């Protein structure tokens, strides 16, 4: 131990503390930005002090990589539209996984006389890194519609997965027995990459929030495993924090859909259930002009956004309408379901972008008890998250899922392109309720119409 | 013994992580994820020591690639998180 390694490890402790404080400040929107800066500071300090390591003999390559990486990172962060955050986050998950994969692989290739423990944890880092990478790439392709979004399943997929698992176990044994043989490394990487693809393929668009959260967790666990391989405390602590965060989010998403993680991961294999239940009532369309008269008289308005709002980019027009409603004396709130959108908190970011105050955004559990008090509930591009079948239709595939009870408001306007069912493929009895009116068309145009009516 | 000591750290970090993240409100879940993404770029520390140590060529290149990738994660992740959090305003 030289003096430097003591300094380095001391600074690592400091940096772990800063990471923890940074996450602590994320507990409120008003302090969150400071928290993120603290976390960035922690990372910066850790990187600088790592460069003090006396075993490092060449800095040129490292610096070149820093510069290129930073430029790419800055471009990605600046260019991305808020609607495409899910794509960017999955891409970043994948990049993180690939980095851990490379570190683990380099440890296996470069180290001499590695102990079985180091080989084993390197293997685990390699495995998780590879699964995270290929899984995230598939998730990214599905989210950005470069690939079909619905679940992809084929006959014998379960057996293929079991064979894959056995193959991975076998490759672990081979690497431990003969760590210097490159073929085993390739075998392990190839199988793990395949595993990642197989994991995400059977998952459909609406279940993406779960997958992104899970892959987020994996990217942390991969860093954590790399920390074990390199015996680096900070990697373990930071990786564990990320891993915990992803697991908590995964859990929240699953609960919000009333499904287990196992069910989400395997539901692509199951045949779509159809219920013979007939829904009574008829669908009543409404023009934007008529909707205006109702809204003008409304004292309280609840907006329930879904992925359709993101697709139509309707959040800015909604904010305009909100201001007009408010100057007309109405109180406007937003109700956000945990799985609305394609990733946790997606709707909140879009509304924040449109300058909607975070104090007007409410969670499902806050809104439901007082939903009868709202004069109008406007559902923008959401379907399954407001489906009353979850509450009243036993036998419906989404029965038991917690939903926003939009149908209990005095009037419900549903802004929708057409009569397609939601991602769950279930009919929505909400549309047939006597207090519900459908306003067909592009959400942004419809809202624009309403804004014009108010302005006149 | 090192393994046990590392496991100890892991166990404590997981508990701290659970306690901290549980308190993050739903409205901040997207920034939480992108911020966590940036933190997972911590692999850059391991990558630096591998790329600079003068291992054999293949390992050095792998290390350098990892430095590059992790840097994208760190820089991109923190910047986009900051961009989002700057938008969360009170009225």
Architecture overview:
By secondary structure, chain A is of the alpha/beta class. Chain A folds into 3 domains: 1-79; 82-269, no CATH class; 288-455, Rossmann fold (3-Layer(aba) Sandwich). Chain A has 17 helices and 6 strands. Chain A has helices at residues 3-25, 29-50, 60-79, 85-110, 116-143, 157-177, 182-200, 208-230, 233-256, 261-266, 288-297, 307-312, 315-327, 346-353, 364-367, 389-392, 443-455, and strands at residues 300-305, 331-336, 361-363, 376-380, 411-416, 436-440. In chain A, α8 (208-230) runs antiparallel to α9 (233-256) and α13 (315-327) runs parallel beside α17. Chain A is globular. The N and C termini of chain A lie far apart (77 Å). The relative contact order of chain A is 0.09. With 91 residues, chain B is mainly α. Chain B is built from 4 helices and no strands. In chain B, α2 runs antiparallel to α4 and α3 runs antiparallel to α4. Classes of the chains: A alpha/beta (456), B mainly alpha (91). The interface between A and B is large, with 110 and 80 residues. Chain B: The chain crosses the membrane at residues 6-22, 34-52, 58-81.
Give the SSE layout:
The complex is a heterodimer of chains A (456) and B (91).
Chain A: H1 3-25, H2 29-50, H3 60-79, H4 85-110, H5 116-143, H6 157-177, H7 182-200, H8 208-230, H9 233-256, H10 261-266, H11 288-297, E1 300-305, H12 307-312, H13 315-327, E2 331-336, H14 346-353, E3 361-363, H15 364-367, E4 376-380, H16 389-392, E5 411-416, E6 436-440, H17 443-455
Parallel strand pairs in A: 1-2, 1-4, 2-3, 4-5, 5-6
Helix pairs in contact in A: 1-2, 1-9, 4-5, 4-8, 5-7, 5-8, 6-7, 8-9, 11-17, 13-17
Chain B: H1 2-22, H2 29-40, H3 43-52, H4 57-85
How many structural units, i.e. domains of chain A?
Answer: 3
**Strand-residue proportion of chain B:** under 5%
**Strand adjacency order, main sheet of chain A:** 3-2-1-4-5-6
Q: Indicate the mean pLDDT of chain B.
A: 93
Kindly state the number of beta strands of chain A: 6
> SS-based structural class of chain A?
alpha/beta
Query: What characteristic shape of chain B results from the CA principal axes?
Result: flat
Topology pattern of chain B, helix = H, strand = E:
HHHH
Low-confidence blocks of residues of chain B: none
């Amino acid at each position: 131990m030289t003096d430097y390694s003591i300094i380095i490890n001391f600074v690592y402790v400091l940096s772990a503390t800063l990471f923890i404080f940074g996450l602590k400040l994320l507990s409120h929107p008003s302090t969150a930005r400071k928290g993120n800066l603290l976390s960035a500071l922690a990372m910066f300090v850790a990187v600088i002090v790592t460069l003090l390591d006396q075993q490092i003999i060449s800095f040129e390559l490292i610096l070149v990589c820093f510069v290129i990486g930073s430029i790419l990172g800055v471009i990605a962060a600046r260019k991305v539209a808020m609607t495409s955050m899910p794509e960017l986050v999955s891409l970043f998950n994948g990049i993180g996984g690939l980095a851990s994969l490379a570190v683990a692989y380099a440890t296996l290739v470069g180290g001499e006389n590695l102990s079985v423990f180091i080989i084993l944890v390197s293997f685990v880092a390699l495995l998780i890194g590879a699964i995270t990478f290929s899984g995230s790439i598939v998730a990214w392709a599905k989210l950005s519609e470069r690939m079909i979004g619905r679940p992809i399943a084929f006959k014998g997929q379960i057996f293929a997965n079991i064979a894959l698992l056995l193959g991975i176990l076998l490759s672990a044994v081979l690497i431990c027995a003969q760590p210097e043989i490159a073929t085993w490394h390739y075998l392990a990487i190839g199988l793990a990459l395949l595993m990642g693809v197989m994991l995400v393929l059977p998952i459909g668009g609406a279940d993406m929030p779960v997958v992104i959260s899970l892959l987020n967790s994996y990217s942390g666990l991969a860093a954590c495993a790399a920390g074990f391989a390199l015996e680096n405390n900070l990697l373990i602590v930071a990786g564990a924090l990320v891993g915990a965060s992803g697991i908590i989010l995964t859990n929240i998403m699953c609960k919000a859909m009333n499904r287990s993680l196992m069910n989400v991961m395997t539901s692509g294999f199951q045949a779509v259930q159809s219920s013979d239940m007939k829904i009574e009532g008829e669908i009543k369309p409404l023009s934007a002009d008529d909707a205006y008269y109702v809204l003008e008289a409304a004292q309280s308005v609840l907006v329930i956004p879904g992925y359709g709002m993101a697709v139509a980019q309707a959040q800015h027009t909604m904010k305009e309408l909100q201001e007009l409603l408010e100057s007309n004396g109405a109180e406007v709130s937003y109700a956000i379901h945990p799985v609305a959108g394609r990733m946790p908190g997606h709707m909140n970011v879009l509304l924040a972008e449109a300058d909607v105050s975070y104090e007007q955004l409410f969670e499902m559990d806050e809104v439901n008890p007082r939903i009868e008090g709202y004069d109008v509930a406007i559902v923008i591009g959401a379907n399954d998250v407001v489906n009353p079948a979850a509450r009243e239709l036993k036998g419906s595939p989404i029965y038991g899922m917690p939903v926003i009870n939009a149908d209990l408001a005095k009037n419900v306007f549903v802004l929708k392109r057409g009569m397609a069912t939601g991602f769950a493929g279930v009919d929505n009895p909400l549309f047939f309720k006597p207090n519900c009116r459908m306003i067909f068309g592009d959400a942004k145009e419809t809202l624009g119409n309403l804004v014009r009516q108010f302005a006149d | 013994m090192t393994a046990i000591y590392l496991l100890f750290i892991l166990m404590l970090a997981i508990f701290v992580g659970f306690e901290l993240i549980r308190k993050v409100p739903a409205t901040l879940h997207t920034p939480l994820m992108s911020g966590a993404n940036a933190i997972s770029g911590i692999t850059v520390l391991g990558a630096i020591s591998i790329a600079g140590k003068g291992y054999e060529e293949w390992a050095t290149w792998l290390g350098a690639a990892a430095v590059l990738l992790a840097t994208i994660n760190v820089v991109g992740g923190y910047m986009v998180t900051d961009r989002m959090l700057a938008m969360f305003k009170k009225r």
